[in-house]
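Private note to self, pasted from the team thread so I don't lose it. Backbone tokens:
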């Protein structure tokens, strides 16, 4: 571990990378993504973790990682395909945003992978091969690549679980709220702050979050604090006191009680369990 989580960025001047490799040695260390990534293994075998939760690597399964998440690969296996792209590379509109939410599930609406079938493997493989060829050019056509990537993601979105309606995004205010929480959860823990930003009363905002997400605004903020604390405990050597202050708590003892109440264990116990 280190005193901070390594930040990994895309190469300068390249908004998209598409590659296939057999050696995964460079993907072992924990790192926080500043880009979107799709990991597609052609074979069963290997393992990796996303936000300290370990997943087995399987064929016909594509893993999706979005900016801010922590990724560590102990062994990705052989014949792995990777697609990485910068935020903002794809056009931003309501339809595109909903597609991105469906594929990457930014707000933990599902597990971070999508299972496909053999037909999808063939069809997506064709798009992937075209992107690889274009990516290898000295001066890739980034507009063409954007269109190919969008087609790839739209096709992949069709394989998300049929039970997932993502109904929370029928009300755009819920998506806006989740973005606000991501931006301000360390500094702002009052429902009123978020309600004011969305021109709603606190009561009405809580009605919406209970309806679409099954939690109050406070519950969503607490979930976000715990997730970030888990990341810091699992992948850095920062003292619990330091993490507490970074999360916006002046009293480390209170923070530890808060953490235990929500997770059932102390921060120290969680860190010890992760590194058994």
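Design output:
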């Amino acid at each position: 571990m280190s005193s901070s989580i390594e930040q990994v960025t895309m190469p300068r001047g390249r908004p998209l990378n598409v590659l296939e490799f057999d050696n995964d040695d460079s993907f072992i260390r924990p790192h926080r993504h500043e880009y979107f990534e799709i990991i597609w293994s052609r074979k069963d075998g290997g393992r990796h973790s996303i936000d300290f939760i370990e997943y087995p690597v399987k064929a016909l399964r594509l893993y999706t990682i979005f900016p801010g998440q922590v990724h560590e690969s102990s062994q990705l296996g052989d014949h792995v395909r990777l697609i990485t792209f910068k935020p903002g590379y794809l056009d931003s509109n309501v339809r595109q945003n909903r597609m991105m939410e469906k594929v990457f599930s930014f707000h933990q609406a599902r597990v971070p992978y999508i299972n496909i079938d053999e037909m999808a493997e063939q069809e997506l493989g064709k798009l992937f091969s075209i992107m690889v060829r274009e990516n290898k050019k000295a001066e890739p056509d980034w507009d063409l690549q954007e269109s190919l990537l969008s087609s790839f993601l739209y096709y992949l979105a069709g394989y998300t679980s049929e039970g997932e309606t993502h109904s929370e995004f029928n009300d755009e205010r819920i998506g806006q709220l989740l973005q606000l929480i991501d931006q301000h959860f360390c500094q702002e823990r009052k429902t009123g702050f978020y309600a004011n930003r969305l021109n709603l009363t606190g009561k009405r905002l809580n009605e919406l979050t209970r309806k679409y997400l099954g939690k109050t605004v406070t519950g969503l903020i607490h979930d976000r604090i715990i997730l970030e604390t888990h990341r810091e405990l699992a992948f850095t050597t920062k003292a619990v006191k330091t993490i507490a202050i970074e999360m916006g708590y002046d009293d480390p003892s209170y923070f530890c009680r808060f953490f235990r109440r929500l997770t059932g264990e102390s921060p120290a116990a969680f860190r010890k369990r992760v590194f058994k």
